[in-house]
Amino acid sequence: MNDAKGLKKYLAVLGAFALLGLSGCGQEQTAETDSSVQETTEQTSEAVVEETTEAATEAYLDYENQDEWDFESGEMQSPINIETSAAEAMVEDGSLTLDYAEEIIDVVDNGHSIEIEDGGQATIAGRSFELAQFHLHSPSEHTVDGESFPIELHFVHKAQDGRLAVIAVFFKEGTENAAFQAILDDVQANEESDVASGLSLNVAELLPANKSYYHYLGSLTTPPLTENVEWYVMANPVEVSAEQIAAFNEYYEGNNREVQPLGERSVLKYEE
Ligand SMILES: [Zn+2]
């Protein structure tokens, strides 16, 4: 009975020590904790204390206080700046097969973007995702070697297990894009109405013919900024006209989140 009580107390102290260790405290605090450990474990020899406390900082888990466990978050945010010279060649076959529906469910001005509700399938490196919607940001959220683009389109997908994958496409100034024009016309025509428009559109025109991309693990770029989102940023932009960029910017300009630190993450490059 007494032994069990003593052990519990000892573990509690070690738990506190583990928390201090994780918070990255300096030498002084470590010394303080050492002496308090020794005080409360008079029966234990010094050698054992040293051995156990060393383990405590590395692997000790206090299963009695799981709500106090430290966990990392905020280290895998999006968007990022893609440094092309630092991208590693992807080892696996990352080929994309995109089969998006041409019959659009609805075009919605959701208060922070123009969002197109659409269905369809994406097969990414052999795994199946369902298209949920696509929407646009101006200027682009991702940058490439520090350069931003006038518009960035996000195709948002979900797998059966809930995993999210976003395929991003940059729009650059060039010739007019028929599919983008159909979206702009639909937004204009339906500004006052909630009725689904029955729009039909060749979604392939919103994607580059060559589907080489940069891949990394990031987050949603709007709250709740959920992490572990797979990003596939198309290396080749799609052209839209200067008039079309101006027309979109009448609705939204500046709905781009700032680039976030890459940290320890890798950016992979897949060449089609
Ligand atoms: Zn987005």
From TrEMBL:
InterPro entries, per the entry: Alpha_CA_prokaryot-like, CA_dom, CA_dom_sf, Carbonic_anhydrase_a-class, Carbonic_anhydrase_a-class_CS
Coiled coil: none
Record bears the keyword Cell membrane: no
SUPFAM superfamilies (alphabetical): Carbonic anhydrase
EC number from the UniProt entry: 4.2.1.1
Any single Pfam family the record assigns to this protein: Carb_anhydrase
Source superkingdom: Bacteria
Organism lineage: Bacteria, Bacillati, Bacillota, Bacilli, Lactobacillales
Function according to Swiss-Prot or TrEMBL: Reversible hydration of carbon dioxide.
Keyword field: Lyase, Metal-binding, Zinc
Cofactor(s) essential for the protein: Zn(2+)
Catalytic reactions on record: hydrogencarbonate + H(+) = CO2 + H2O
Name under which the protein is recorded: Carbonic anhydrase
Residues in Alpha-carbonic anhydrase domain copies: 59-271
